[in-house]
C-alpha cells in the first residue's frame, strides 16, 4: 500500500508540467519520450502482476494500471499540443508501444506454460524497470554539470525513492527477485538524487521558474 501511495504521487508529479503545456499551447523543449517509456513499463509490469501470470501480487497490477492511465493521458496531451514533427513521432511511438505489448501478451498466453510465462514476463519487467530507473542518470548528469537542481524537482526525487524502497521491501517479503532487484537499483539511484539535491539546493532558488524537463 505504501508503494502504491508513493507511486501515485510519482504519477501525478508531472501535472504542473502539463498545466504549463496547456497554458502555453506548446510543448516547448519538453521531451515526450519519458512518458512513452513509462507507459510501456507500466503495461509490462501490469501484465506481470496479473493473477494468471504471478499469483498473490495484485498490488503490482493495481499500481501499474493506474500508472498506465496517467501516462496515456500525458502522452495524449503532449500529442495535442506538439508541433507537427513531434506529433507524428509520438503518435507512431504510441502505436508501437501498444503493438509491442499486444505481441508480448499474445506470445505469453499462446505459446508458454504458466512457469515459463512468469519467467518471460518477469525478465521483461526487470529490463523495463531498470531502463526506467536509469533515466534519472541523465538528470543526475545534468545536475552535476549545471550545479543546479532546476531540472530535478525535490518531490519527484523523493517519491521515486520512497516508491522504489517500498516495492524493494515488498519484493523481499514476497521472495520475488523480479520486483526486489530493479527496485533495489531504483532505491540506490533515489538516494543519489536526494544527496545531490541536498548538496546543490542551497545554490539554486526553486521558486525562480518551473522545471523545464520532466520525467516519469
From TrEMBL:
Transmembrane segments: 30-50, 56-80, 92-112, 118-144, 151-173, 179-200
Keyword Lipoprotein annotated: no
Source domain of life: Eukaryota
Topology in the lipid bilayer: Multi-pass membrane protein
Cellular component, GO annotation: endomembrane system; membrane
UniProt keyword Magnesium, yes or no: no
One family name in Pfam for this protein: MtN3_slv
Subcellular location: Endomembrane system
PANTHER family reported in the protein's UniProt record: BIDIRECTIONAL SUGAR TRANSPORTER SWEET2A, RAG1-ACTIVATING PROTEIN 1
Designated name of the protein: Bidirectional sugar transporter SWEET
